[in-house]
Amino acid sequence: EVQLVESGGGLVQPGGSLRLSCAASGFTFGISDMSWVRQAPGKGPEWVSGISSDGGNTFYADFVKGRFTISRDNAKNTLYLEMKRLKPEDTAVYYCQVELLSIRPLDWGPGTRVTVSS
Q: What per-residue confidence (pLDDT) applies to 105?
């Protein structure tokens, strides 16, 4: 059974930084493409960033390009999202998923809430 547990969210001021983590279990993480998606209050989910199974290829939505960095540690079965220069519009619950470029809510974990506000 796929289990994904996100952490690292919180309240941060505009311009600040956060690092999200996603602990994965129940599947072979090291051969699975992964991604982050987010859902802002009252809005539908949107894809944020994806990474290939070996970490060699990364992809970003235009609205986070240059500010967010996705990475992974296959030895630790963990996915990361480094977020810098955060904006109020980045406020959302962030989820990791076993998918590269689309939205696949089937195995989402509880998510981690990011609030960007002064």
A: 86
